[in-house]
Amino acid sequence: MSRAEIKQWAKSKIKGHIWELLIPIAVTGILTSLTIGQHVTTSTDGGAAVQVSGGFNLGFFFYFVTVGLTYFMVRFINDESHEFKDIFRFAGDYVRIFLVNLLQIIFIVLWTLLLIVPGIIKGIAYALVPYLLADDKYKDLSYTAVLKKSEEMMKGHKMDYFVFVLSFFGWFLLSALTFFILMIWLAPYFETAKTKFLNDIKTSAEGGSTGTVASDNAQETTAEANVETEKKKCPNCGTEVDANTKFCTNCGKEI
Question: By CB distance 3.0 to 4.6 Å, which of 55, 82, 215, 239 could disulfide with 38?
C-alpha cells in the first residue's frame, strides 16, 4: 500500500476499537516513561529564574512491554486474537530483550556522537527490532543478530519510514493545541498505521504477501491475461479462435 492508503486503512481499522487500543498503548507509554527522583530546582541567574529538573528514567527497564505492545498490535491488524495482557507477554524473556535494547541504545548513541543525522538513521534502521523480538521465528537470534536483521530488512525503506512518521507531524501539533485530548484518537490511529507500515516491510522481506493494493492489481492483471489467452472453437468449421472473438476468422460465421 502507499502511505496514503495505509493511513486511510488505519482510520477505518480503528473504528469501534479506540479504547481497546488506547488502554494498552497508554499503559506502555506510562511504563516506558517512568522516572524516579524527579525534582525541579529554581535558581536565579542575573535576575532571571532558572529551573533545573533531574531524575532517573526507569523506562529503560520496561522495553519488554514495547515488544508486547508490538505483538498485540500485529495481531490486531491481522485480525488475530489479542488481549491487554499481551503487553506483558515477554516478561519471561526479560534478559534477552533488555540486552538487545541496551545494545541498540549504545549503537545509536555512538552514531549520534559522530553526527546527529547518522544517529537518526541508525535509530530508523532498528525500527523492526521489537517486531523481530515479538516473533518466535527469531527467538534464537543472538543480540547483535537481531539488530543486523532489522538493518537488513529496513534497507531501502529508511527514508520511506522517516517520511511516513513525518507525515503525522500536523496531527501531533493539532493534538498539542487541543491539550492532547485528540491523542485519544490519534494514538490508536498512529500506532495502527505504523504497525501496518513496518509489519508490511518485515513480511515483504520474509517473502510473504502483505495484501497490498499492488499485489491485488497484479492478481487482477494476471486474471485478465488468462481470460485473453482462453480459446474456443467455431461451431460451423471448428476453427479455434480467441474466447472474446464474436465472428469466426475462417468462415465468418457469428459465434
Answer: 55
